[in-house]
Write a structure and sequence with these properties.
InterPro entries: Cyt_b561_bac/Ni-Hgenase, Cytochrome_b561_oxidase, Di-haem_cyt_TM. This protein is elongated. It has one domain. By secondary structure, it is mainly alpha-helical. Helix 3 packs antiparallel against helix 4 and helix 4 packs antiparallel against helix 5. Helix content is 72%, strand content 0%. 12% of the residues are buried. The structure holds protoporphyrin IX containing FE (2 copies).
């Protein structure tokens, strides 16, 4: 069903934010372990060496940038909305896609928050949760990317293209 005034696609800003956040998350997954020597040193009450602090700061500031971009992205979503799932998609697939997107949103907010609680406030349990999330994110993002490619090459829907090319808005 098409609702009046429902967006026909994502805006250029939504697309830019999606890909910048995706790139930063992948970077964080790759460099995540680099924060550990400094984190361990602080947890033991010792002073980390300068190189370890530098590596840790990169992880912290890239992660905090993800949080700011995630808040921005969510605000844009509330303002501009998102396009409906392809009309011929089954109810089950629509639910799976919506749940996957919800989980991805939880990660882009939850990772910086749990990391920040561990780093700034010494909540070790939050650090452990943050670490445990790593393999889960890899699986969810992998399935999400595979689903997008499957939609594009096999189902031949416009789902991937609409996350690459901005669409106009319906007239109010
Ligand atoms: C860490 C990486 C990623 C994160 C956190 C992420 C997150 C998200 C989220 C939350 C949405 C829902 C957008 C909304 O409704 O507001 C979305 C949509 C989408 N993502 Fe990703 N994504 C990532 C990587 C990727 C990759 C690698 C691809 C493609 C290969 C991709 C393709 C898409 C597409 C095509 C949509 C639109 C789906 C639709 O219109 O129904 N994403 N992504
Ligand atoms: C997008 C956001 C983030 C992602 C995807 C991410 C990812 C990761 C990964 C993959 C690890 C290594 C886990 C392992 O080796 O098993 C890690 C460790 C860690 N991260 Fe993040 N991180 C993010 C944001 C942050 C932020 C903003 C902070 C701090 C302000 C932070 C603090 C930490 C700490 C303290 C550890 C070490 C935890 C421990 O050893 O118990 N992270 N992170």
């Amino acid at each position: 069903m098409t609702v009046a005034n429902e967006p026909t696609g994502y805006t250029a800003m939504q697309i830019l934010l999606h890909w910048v956040i995706a790139a930063l998350i992948v970077l964080q997954l790759i460099i995540g372990e680099d924060i550990k020597p400094a984190y361990r040193a602080f947890s033991r009450g010792t002073e980390p060496v300068a190189g370890d602090i530098f590596n840790a700061n990169i992880h912290v500031y890239v992660g905090l940038a993800v949080l700011v971009l995630a808040i921005w992205r969510f605000a844009v979503r509330l303002r501009d909305g998102v396009p409906a799932a392809p009309p011929d998609e089954s109810v089950l697939l629509k639910r799976i896609a919506a749940s996957a997107h919800l989980v991805l949103y939880l990660f882009i907010f939850g990772m910086p928050i749990t990391g920040g609680l561990a780093w700034y406030f010494g909540f070790g349990a939050m650090g452990e949760l943050h670490e445990l999330a790593k393999p889960v994110i890899i699986v969810v993002v992998g399935l999400h990317a595979a689903a997008a490619l499957w939609q594009h090459f096999y189902v031949k829907s416009d789902v991937l293209v609409r996350m690459l090319r901005p669409a106009g808005r319906r007239a109010p």
